[in-house]
């Protein structure tokens, strides 16, 4: 674990450069460029608002549904996109891995960092909706660094795991896509746990993202703070994910150069 | 016990095994096939069979041998691109990135960005690399192509850039794999001069080549490999004579498999 912290610090410039490269490649060929970082969440939110709020598919009757949705959607989108990048981060950097020694962990970390820039940019559409709906900016926003840290750790941990598996099993990219779509509906993004019949709760509370998402939604949407236990769990989940994910990554990293 | 400065590189009984699969794709289907009892297509290739040697500081070591004898595997082990299957490889100091035919670092990045990336990997800061950039581009003779992604470079341009970067960032150990084969006469001359300079500065160098004149002019000691075994270790003239005999006896060797 110490090695993880040391290498991350030592190679911070490299991680930074690789993350910038990811972004450059992502937006280089599109006409609107970085604007897509705003447009994408705006459009997705618009779709879900129409389906769930206007068509009343869910019939949850939630006030300011766009905001309710967006404040859980943007962390989830970050997670989802980071996974998609992390799973091919080692393979995509094969030419580098085969020519010079680099601690391999910089690649999944750079994938997560690149998407973190996007996460920060997606606060702008969120602010836009707050303004449109005349929804108050609560002081509880100051709590956001806590779920943010939990989210980053959890994403990095999962990123390590899928990056390593992606080298050996190319199907993992497709499996991941299906899994993430299912996971999206299992996460309290479109709804809150309260909207689900109580008999499903004993299962749903095992969702590792539960308290992280709650840490975003409560302060932004309701202006409330989650209870200390929830805050603690959201960080703890992240730490456990990093420890496990990095252990998997470390187990396989020596043979990456031979297999990519 | 030798003192800590007695060698820059030391191999002790190094074995390297590669698993050769009949098909490269690692899909779920392949996994199922492998689990089935009749699957025996996998075989091991022993690229190195118990190789031991040490390189004292300031020595220029040549490695010669037929195709597929394990020369490049030794370079990759020195560069820590993968660890040996068994035995130990010890290396002291910064090692240059591998320069080989058609080397590039990251195909989507420009020549300039690649040079900076290579330096950052070896522990320089971006600012330090900015300063070295002018002389790197001048040596490679490609000022006008500095901002073109290297996937558009020709093979000659790539190895010129690779050689310029690897020598300009001033590594303790320079690894050169057959770079002189691609440049024109003028560039070859520049490379040879620079390698002689390196020697004069007392730097350690490992040089792989099929051109015996180059080996004779640069190296003070030569290893002869055959089929993963160290056949001879000594003065260039004697080893080269033995190599030429070997070629006459056995022919040019098994074709190089593109392992990496």
Short description:
Chain A is 72% helix and 0% strand.
**Largest interface, counted with CB-CB under 8 A?**
A-B, 23 and 34 residues
Global geometry of chain B: globular
What structural category characterises the helix and strand content of chain A? mainly alpha
> Would you identify the regions of chain A where 5 or more consecutive residues have pLDDT less than 50?
none
What would you give as the CATH superfamily of the domain at 9-96 and 171-250 in chain B?
A: P-loop containing nucleotide triphosphate hydrolases
Number of strands of chain A: 0
Tell me roughly what share of residues is in helical segments of chain B.
Answer: 25-40%
- Total number of distinct structural domains of chain A: 1
Can you describe this structure?
The complex is a heterodimer of chains A (260) and B (260). Chain A is built from 14 helices and no strands. Chain A is mainly alpha-helical and 260 residues long. Chain A has one domain (2-259). The model of chain A has no long low-confidence stretch (mean pLDDT 89). With 260 residues, chain B is of the alpha/beta class. Chain B has a domain at 9-96 and 171-250: P-loop containing nucleotide triphosphate hydrolases (Rossmann fold). Chain B is built from 8 helices and 8 strands; from the N terminus they run E-H-E-E-H-E-H-H-H-E-H-E-H-E-E-H. Chain B has helices at 28-35, 71-78, 111-121, 126-140, 155-168, 185-200, 212-218, 236-250, and strands at residues 9-20, 43-55, 60-65, 86-91, 173-177, 204-208, 221-226, 229-234. In chain B, the strands form 2 sheets. A 5-stranded mixed β-sheet of chain B has the order 5-6-3-7-8, with helices on both faces. A 3-stranded antiparallel β-sheet of chain B has the order 2-1-4. In chain B, a hairpin with a 2-residue loop joins strand 7 (221-226) and strand 8 (229-234). In chain B, helix 3 (111-121) packs parallel to helix 5 (155-168) and helix 4 crosses helix 5 (155-168). The two termini of chain B are 36 Å apart. The mean pLDDT of chain B is 83. Chains A and B meet through helix 2, helix 6 and helix 14 of A and helix 3 of B.
